[in-house]
Design brief:
With about 140 residues, the chain is an all-alpha fold. It has one domain. It is about 75% helix and about 0% strand. It contains six helices and no strands. The longest helix has 30 residues. The two termini are about 15 Å apart. The mean pLDDT is about 95.
Length: about 140
């Protein structure tokens, strides 16, 4: 069961990492126009351009690291306690982002309708599932 959970998490996180990497090198995949991409994935009022490329690269690295940790957590015989405990900061990060997406303050800071729709249907729920996945993988290693 842990392999199934970790596999789902790995694929999702690798996709997120790949998208952020593409944005970090100036690509606007999957949307051709930078302004529409920024409105779709950032959603702040009046946004015209994507955030700095270095920020996208940092997110690409963190999500790639999260993908690798998720995969490693499925192997109960490797990494020991340090690997098991590494699940905690990743779980906290994803649960926090997922939860914040449902707060009124975040909704006010990200009013663009395309972003709001995507955040409600995809971004926040995915973050909550990933955060829960890290906790489940950690607990499965402990039991």
């Amino acid at each position: 069961m842990s392999m199934l959970i970790a596999s789902f998490m790995f694929v999702a996180l690798l996709a997120v990492s790949f998208a952020h990497f593409l944005w970090s090198i100036g690509r606007t995949w999957p949307i051709r126009e930078e302004k529409l991409l920024a409105q779709t994935v950032v959603g702040t009022a009046g946004i015209e351009h994507m955030p700095p490329r270095l920020g996208s690269f940092a997110v690409a690295l963190v999500t790639l690291a999260a993908a690798l940790v998720a995969a490693a957590l499925a192997d109960h015989d490797s990494g020991g306690a340090p690997l098991t405990l590494l699940a905690i900061p990743f779980a906290a990060m994803f649960l926090a982002r997922g939860g914040v997406g449902y707060t009124q303050r975040f909704v006010e800071k990200t009013p663009h309708p395309i972003f709001r729709l995507n955040d409600r249907r995809v971004y926040s729920p995915l973050c909550l599932v990933l955060g829960a996945g890290f906790l489940v993988l950690m607990l499965m290693r402990l039991i």
